[in-house]
Design brief:
- It is a single chain.
- The chain is built from 6 helices and 5 strands.
- By secondary structure, it is an alpha+beta fold.
- It has a single domain, classed as Alpha-Beta Plaits (2-Layer Sandwich).
- It has a 5-stranded antiparallel beta sheet with strand order 2-3-1-4-5, with helices on both faces.
- α5 (66-77) crosses α6.
- It is globular, with a radius of gyration of 19 Å.
- The model is unreliable at 17-22 (pLDDT under 50).
């Protein structure tokens, strides 16, 4: 095979192969770990949305015990527009969910506010999905370049 044919075949092969994309199982596992159907129904009745976030950063801090987890819950609940009592955390899956009033705060603004409050602990939330109605999950297009697939 001559060089131009090899180059054409390599180009055709490269064009057929796309970059490796995440299959979504990691995201779905995180969502499932903090999914609470009763909370979702309560949020939907109030016309609120439920956000699902990955927890990044110093996860060993979060695993250090109840005090760290309570601090994360308090930071989330102190965010304007976030429903008190709606925070669900899975330390094992590094996930958090919360319901919020979309007429008062966007998911991006709520997460930015929470991230400012938890930065001192070396933690950060990355929004993954928002459920506006039962069984309607939407991807979150975060401004953060480090958002996970």
């Amino acid at each position: 095979m001559n060089a131009p044919v090899k180059a054409a075949l390599a180009f055709a092969l490269a064009a057929c192969c796309t970059a490796a994309f995440a299959c979504g199982h990691c995201v779905e596992d995180k969502v499932a770990a903090v999914y609470d159907h009763a909370e979702l129904m309560r949020a939907e009745a109030a016309r609120h949305h439920v956000a699902y976030c990955a927890i990044d950063g110093k996860l060993e801090y979060l695993q250090s015990g109840d005090v760290a987890q309570r601090g994360l819950v308090q930071a989330a609940e102190a965010t304007p527009g976030v429903d008190r009592g709606s925070i669900r955390i899975s330390v094992d899956n590094a996930a958090l969910s919360f319901s919020f009033d979309p007429s008062k705060v966007s998911v991006d603004k709520a997460v930015r506010t929470m991230n400012k409050k938890i930065a001192a602990q070396g933690l950060r939330l990355d929004p993954m999905r928002v459920m506006e109605r039962t069984a309607v999950l939407k991807n979150v297009e975060a401004a953060s370049p480090t958002r996970r697939p």
